[in-house]
Fold:
Amino acid sequence: MRKLSNKTSGIEYQKRIDRALTFIRGNLDRPISLSDVANAACFSEFHFHRIFSSLMHETVGEYITRKKLEHAAMRLAYSPSTSVSVVADECGYASVSSFSKSFNQWFGCRPTDIQQIKQRLDSGGGKLQTKYEKSIEANELFVTSGEDEDLFSALDEHVNIKSIDAFDVVYLTSEGGYEIESIRNTWVKLFQLVEDAGVDWSTCERFSLSHDHPGLTPAERCRYDACVRFPMSADSEFGSPLNLPKAHIPAGRYAIFPAEGPEDSILNQYLEFYTGWMPQSGYEPDNFPVLEHLLPTCEIGYIQVELWAKIKPITSIF
Structure:
């Protein structure tokens, strides 16, 4: 068996951790055991817990609980007609009471309080605040100005619903999460790797995966992946000249929303989309991270992107 170099071994570990994260994301609606995740990552259960904690800086159990509760908070905030019992079931909790207890322990408020956050929210004492010194703020989840119906009409003119075929990308992860300078440095590194591999950068499509909601996730846990999709003929298999981790973008229906402006203005435009368009659109967010398609005119200091939000129709619970 050929021994891997330290660099290649590190990439292989990251690939396996990514398989674990994909498995967790796809199974939030049921209890997830350490054994399940270790098997998905092709690691022995004995070693996996230590490896995961070392790379992710939190235990497997802590990560699963956090992602379940963050997903629940987003569903409650951006799908206000969805009941707490439905969300509890979607997140794999046996009862509403156990879900509400976990929610309160993490966020320091009740699940129903998230749906009323535009008016008033008193949160505190939860693990999010005591461990990470982060509180939930209305202006980090919603755009609070203007009438919702007027905002929906204005945004709906710019939203396109498209069916996207599955494709693969390779990526580099920003070491500083959503910190702007770290994101810039990550793209510079990726550009250099692509050019060094003899690939014309202008022929590549650029995407980014924003795995976490900054209004719900501690800054040090937010993950940003800078991604490239290499050109290939319609009948060719995905191939990469770079030895980097690969991410799979699933097929499905996506709401595509354009956003542009200085880097620090983009988040507010995303909040407008989720606040003003999503609740009245007839759709709800599917369980996949926010995908950004960086347009050719996008550059450092002035962002021009398309937000690709994977969506599914809202179905009646009755």
Observations:
- Residues 63-142 form one domain.
- The longest helix spans residues 6-26.
- The chain has three domains: 6-56, 63-142, 160-313.
- The first strand starts at residue 160 and ends at 164.
